[in-house]
Each structure stands twice: as structure tokens, then as C-alpha cells.
């Protein structure tokens, strides 16, 4: 387990969207730069597990296998994702208890509606061979700042559960040091 959080209904007056994006390929990437990243082995997967019906995730199936088309390239550079419809996009509909696993470099976005209750567990799992891209995807969210101070005392004395949790923490801290020095691993996306 790498990243784990909860996606919730926004506290807002209106609907809003994230821009169309890939998690570790900036919109400014050239087609050859995209292809270089997409050809690397995938050492992690993201997942969403819905506690309520969830229709917030939209994806372009198969886009994690290729560079963006000219139309996709233009749409991913827009500041407002509603300005143009993404060709081939599908809405992922999850019923309570459904889970979806996906490559974080698939073209995707979140669509947030304050009128619809949302509680979806979101996370990623990965392998240590994932290198700096994995470190950046996980530790950019501030995890690297506080993870070293996590106290697993609530898990009891010398239990297997506590040993697993402490091992995960130690590997995250080491990954941050190896890849980003003092916890500064950069950001996958800017803005």
C-alpha cells in the first residue's frame, strides 16, 4: 500500500472538474516523451473503492498505452475541462462496494458535484522497483513530511500487524530520502 485517502463530496456551491490529465506526465510533454514514460513497466496501480454510488471518475479507455492525439493534447492544456468534450471518454460508475483498478497514466479526470454524496476510498499499491516516479506520485501529497512520525503503538506490542505497518513506513521514508533528499520529491503535475 502506498497512498490511501478518501475522496468526498466537495463543499462548494457548484459542480467543478479536475482537468483531463495523466498523473505522471505533464500536459507539456511531447509525444515522444509520453511514449517513453508509457513504455516503462508499470510498478503500481491506483484504485477507487466506492462506499456510496460514485460517478465522479471519467477515463479514456486504452489511453495509457499511447501518446495523446492532437485533440486530446489540446483538451489537456485547457484550464477548464468543460470547454470541450473528450473523445472516447467514459464515466466509471461504481456501486457501493465496487472497486476499479487503473493505470494512473490513463487520461482521466474527476467530476465533482456538491449535490451528490461521495465517500470513495482511493489509493495505490506498488512495488519498490517503481523508482522515482512512484516516490513522486506517493510522497508529493505531503506524505513524506509526516510519515516518519506516524506512531503505530495502537497496534499493540510486537504484533505482526505492527511490524508490517512499521516496515511500510520505513520503506516510504527511505524512498523519500533516496529519491528526493529532504522529502522534496517534486510534483507529478503543476497547477
From TrEMBL:
Entries under SUPFAM superfamilies matching the protein: Clavaminate synthase-like
Pfam families named in the record: PhyH (PF05721)
Protein name: Phytanoyl-CoA dioxygenase family protein
Residues of the signal peptide: none
Amino acid at each position: 500500500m502506498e497512498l490511501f485517502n478518501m475522496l468526498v463530496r466537495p463543499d462548494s456551491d457548484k459542480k467543478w472538474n479536475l482537468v483531463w490529465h495523466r498523473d505522471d506526465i505533464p500536459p507539456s510533454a511531447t509525444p515522444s516523451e509520453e511514449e517513453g514514460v508509457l513504455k516503462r513497466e508499470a510498478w503500481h496501480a491506483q484504485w477507487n473503492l466506492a462506499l456510496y454510488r460514485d460517478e465522479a471518475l471519467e477515463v479514456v479507455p486504452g489511453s495509457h498505452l499511447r501518446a495523446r492525439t492532437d485533440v486530446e493534447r489540446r483538451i489537456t492544456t485547457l484550464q477548464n475541462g468543460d470547454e470541450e468534450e473528450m473523445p472516447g471518454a467514459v464515466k466509471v460508475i461504481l456501486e457501493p462496494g465496487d472497486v476499479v483498478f487503473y493505470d494512473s497514466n490513463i487520461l482521466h479526470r474527476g467530476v465533482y458535484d456538491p449535490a451528490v454524496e461521495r465517500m470513495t476510498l482511493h489509493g495505490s499499491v506498488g512495488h519498490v522497483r517503481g523508482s522515482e516516479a512512484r516516490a513522486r506520485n506517493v510522497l508529493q501529497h505531503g506524505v513524506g513530511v509526516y510519515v516518519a512520525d506516524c506512531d503505530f503503538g495502537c497496534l499493540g506490542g510486537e504484533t505482526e500487524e505492527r511490524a508490517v505497518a512499521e516496515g511500510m513506513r520505513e520503506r516510504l521514508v527511505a524512498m523519500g530520502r533516496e529519491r528526493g533528499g529532504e522529502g522534496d520529491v517534486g510534483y507529478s503535475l503543476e497547477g
